[in-house]
Specification:
heterodimer, A: 302 residues, alpha/beta, six-stranded mixed sheet, 10 helices, 14 strands, B: 552 residues, mainly alpha
Chain lengths: 302, 552
């Protein structure tokens, strides 16, 4: 991965009246990576994307894409990007192909063989009117529209919304291929599992503030494990809580579930003291759990 | 009936009704104060046929003239148009927005939803009528104008029933077809045709009785302001209302509901017809989406077609021979015409072909036609794409915001010119057919002036659209401005001391120089063109500055 910065923001801030939609965002996204922007609904993901696209103007701070200022050189930037808006809407009375032709005419130089290839991969129907398509099928046209120009930077706001799992997988494959060719992908999502599968790094945003930026691999290595303990009789979960590294203890009769990132020996010692441990299973926590744990700490700390 | 649906619809719609009635009250105040101050003796000398056409009762005084011009003309049309817009949106509007399914996901029947919508229309129209009734008393009291013997309550009641008639007609059409555009278009068409028929037919000897076939006759045929409520006439309209309600209930229950309707453009219809397919494909396919201005233009082709056809045929070709037919009705009265009376319809001397065309075609209809088309494009140009959430996608392409504004403005200018050209060709043909021998260059000049005047308000719509990003405001502002400026230009010259201020109205630069007789007033044309260009330039600046709206 080259260390060339593709998207750069500095102190990017956007207020709507009293609402602080985006607060002091400093972020660098590099060439050849998939950056996942994560946060709950209303966290400021869309505001950030719309700001760097010059749809709205920052209250303070600035940003650049490929070295171009997002406000002053926005037209130049748009020669090099593909964009999928969140909550995608297109012209309902145009067919998919008409829609793509329209945008191709505005851009110039679209390879129609590539469009057909994309359309085959996503199983899109370009002959129907946009207004007659289901939201998932409409989303496919939106994705083709963003990919068809082989842009250097892809900005996608909740790109896989409405797609069925098979098409989602195809979309993820397309995204990885784009990045493998040295291009950059910036996508927002509120589902971690999606980001987990395709992103190289994740930025976590909440209430307009960037809370953390982590490599997905690094997040995984925060060796949080999910542990299930089965006893021969109902037990008091409170006894396990003091063990260092134990979190989220849930007791269901004979069965205890907890998150754990400490030494197993300490946990076993308490678990086997005075009662019979019948079975134990442990598994690597998925990103969702790591994230929830991690996130809560950040929130509490901040 | 569902109280919540009713209240919500009332809440969504009350502003338009409030703005409409308050403007009418202000217009009444304005009109009555002007009529109070001028010498009215000239009105009484008018021939009978004339007074009938422009709603001037036999005993012309300030009050009856003002009621006639403001309430019977503007008021009746406005109230009916407001009811009509509610009626056409009632079921079809929720279908278009894709919200009807959600609404019917609740335990409510289609009939109940329809009834609630009709109820809200009834409530708002009644409130509007009550406000107008109140204003009809307060205004003369404020001005000290004598209104004894005037039955403004009866007039307003007739206006109310008349408005319900067109509102429910639109509702019935919308309930049957699910198309809001079709519902409002058809109902407006019926309203306008019947309005003109009732005004013009009595002038043609032998055809006087035909007016009774048109619903507008039952609104003011009985002259309610002096004669009081005519129950037989009101009963005709109310019977129509009852029939429309029944039709709407049957219609909405028998068909499949649409989810988020897709507008079918004219070209799409031609495309599905095997006879026209190959030509239409060329028009509709790759050409339609080749440029922003072409796409913008293609979205309004139906509106252009209807407007241009109306101007060409009804207002152009037909009017010429009609002049020859009814010339006698006016007799030899050329010198008797008080120009003041004609101010509202364009100051034409109707004893000449030029004056006739000025009153019938150019005075009101030509600028209205150009305005309808150019305001429709101008208002939706930018705000429409924002409301439909397509602006973000459009602006993700390497085009500057200024280029988008200019391309949209170009489509607007092109369509305005097309309406102007249709008017020119229609009037030219009408003059030839009627053997009126009008000067073709002057017809062209007047058509061009009408186009430029319409474009001023279209460009104002574009500027509001660019600055605010809301379609409804971008329609209201230029329409309100056009009405105000039209009235200023019509009424101010009636008063000697205020006449000079008429120059501040764009309408002043349209017909003041009598272009049908005197040819192109280049200076006036330049003022209008300059205004339009200035507003487009302003749009570019305004749109470049602001944050785009994400939702409607």
């Amino acid at each position: 991965m080259s260390e060339q910065v593709t998207i750069h923001t500095e102190g990017l801030t956007k207020h709507y009246g009293d609402v602080r939609a985006l607060v002091d965002l400093d972020l660098d996204i590099y060439r050849g990576e998939v950056f996942g922007f994560l946060g709950p609904n209303g966290a400021g993901k869309t505001t950030m994307i719309r700001t760097i696209l010059d749809e709205i103007r920052p209250t303070a701070g600035w940003a650049s894409i490929l070295g171009f200022d997002t406000h002053r050189q926005s037209v130049e930037i748009r020669r090099h990007i593909g964009y999928v808006p969140g909550d995608l809407a297109m012209y309902p009375n145009l067919t998919g192909r008409d829609t793509l032709t329209y945008f191709a005419n505005l851009r110039g130089g679209v390879d129609w063989d590539y469009v057909d290839e994309l359309s085959d991969r996503l199983d899109a129907d370009l002959s129907k009117k946009i207004g007659d398509l289901s939201s998932g099928n409409r989303q496919k046209v939106g994705l083709i529209q963003a990919f068809m120009n082989r842009p250097e930077v892809l900005l996608m706001d909740e790109p896989s919304s409405g797609l069925d799992p098979l098409v989602q997988r195809e979309f993820q494959a397309m995204t990885r291929e784009v990045v493998a060719r040295g291009r950059t992908v910036f996508l927002s999502s509120h589902t971690l599992s999606e980001v987990q599968r395709i992103a190289d790094r994740v930025g976590i945003i909440r209430h307009g503030r960037l809370i953390a930026v982590e490599a997905v691999a690094a997040l995984r290595s925060k060796a949080i494990r999910k542990v299930d303990l089965y006893f021969d009789r109902p037990i008091d979960g409170a006894r396990l809580e003091p063990v260092p590294g134990v979190r989220d203890v849930v007791v269901q009769n004979h069965h205890v579930t907890l998150s754990f990132d400490g030494h197993m020996e300490a946990l076993l010692k308490v678990a086997t003291d005075g009662q019979t441990l019948v079975d134990i299973t442990t598994q690597e926590a998925d990103l969702e759990e790591i994230f929830l744990t991690y996130y809560r700490d950040e929130e509490a700390g901040g | 009936m569902l109280a919540t649906v009713l209240t919500k619809t009332v809440r969504d719609r009350w502003k338009a009704m409030a703005i409409g009635t308050v403007s009418l009250a202000v217009m009444l105040l304005f009109g009555m104060s002007v009529y109070r101050d001028i010498d009215l003796s000239l009105y009484t000398d008018l021939p009978e046929a004339w007074r009938a056409l422009i709603n001037i009762p036999d005993s012309a005084d300030a009050a009856s003239l003002a009621y006639g011009a403001i309430y019977e003309f503007y008021g009746a049309l406005t109230l009916a148009a407001l009811a009509l817009s509610m009626g056409s949106a009632s079921i079809a509007g929720e279908e278009r927005d894709g919200t009807l399914g959600l609404l019917l996901g609740n335990p409510t029947s289609r009939t109940a939803v329809l009834a609630s919508k009709a109820g809200s229309m009834l409530v708002l129209t009644a409130v509007g009528a009550l406000l107008l009734w109140g204003a009809g008393y307060i205004v003369p009291a404020m001005l000290g104008v004598e209104v004894a013997g005037m039955q403004v309550g009866a007039l307003v009641f007739h206006m109310f029933v008349n408005a319900l008639f067109y509102g429910l007609l639109a509702m019935a059409i919308g309930a049957w077809t699910g198309s809001r555009g079709l519902a409002s278009g058809t109902a407006v068409g019926i309203m306008v045709v019947s309005f003109f028929a009732v005004g013009l037919l009595p002038l043609v000897p032998g055809l006087e009785g035909l007016a009774k076939a048109f619903p507008w006759y039952y609104f003011n045929g009985s002259d309610p302001v002096t004669g009081g409520v005519s129950w037989p006439h009101a009963a005709v309209l109310l019977t129509g209302c009852a029939l429309f309600v029944m039709a709407a209930v049957v219609g909405v229950n028998r068909r499949d509901l649409k989810s988020q309707t897709v507008g079918v453009a004219l070209v799409d219809r031609l495309r599905s017809n095997p006879l026209t397919k190959s030509v239409a494909d060329r028009l509709a396919g790759s050409t339609r989406v080749s440029r922003i201005w072409i796409k913008t233009a293609s979205e309004h082709q139906g509106l252009l077609f209807v407007t241009a056809a109306l101007m060409f045929f009804m207002m152009g070709v037909l009017i010429g021979p009609m002049y020859t037919a009814i010339e006698d009705a006016f007799g030899n009265i050329a010198d008797e015409f008080p120009e003041a009376v004609m101010a509202l319809v364009g100051n034409g001397d109707m004893s000449t072909p030029e004056g006739w065309y000025q009153v019938e075609t150019f005075g009101l209809m030509a600028p209205i036609a150009v305005m309808v088309v150019s305001i429709a494009i101008g208002a939706r140009a930018l705000a429409g794409e924002e409301a439909n959430r397509t602006m973000g996608l459009l602006l993700a392409n390497p085009i500057s915001r200024s280029a988008i504004v200019l391309e949209k403005a170009f489509a607007m200018v092109l369509y305005a010119l097309a309406v102007g050209a249709a008017t020119f060709v229609g009037v030219g043909l009408g003059s030839l057919l009627g053997g009126l021998g009008m000067n073709m260059f002057n017809i062209a000049a007047t058509s061009l002036l009408a186009t430029l005047l319409g474009l001023v308000f279209g460009a104002l719509a574009l500027a509001v659209s660019a600055g605010v990003g809301r379609v409804r405001i971008a329609i209201f502002v230029p329409v309100g401005a056009a009405l105000t400026f039209h009235l200023l230009n019509a009424f101010l010259p009636l008063s000697d001391s205020l006449a000079g201020y008429a120059r501040w109205s764009p309408f002043y630069y349209y017909l003041t120089s009598d272009p049908l007789v005197n040819g192109m007033p280049w200076g006036h044309g330049a003022v209008l063109a300059g205004l339009a260009i200035g507003l487009v330039a302003g749009s570019v600046v305004l749109f470049g500055r602001r944050d785009l709206r994400q939702t409607s």
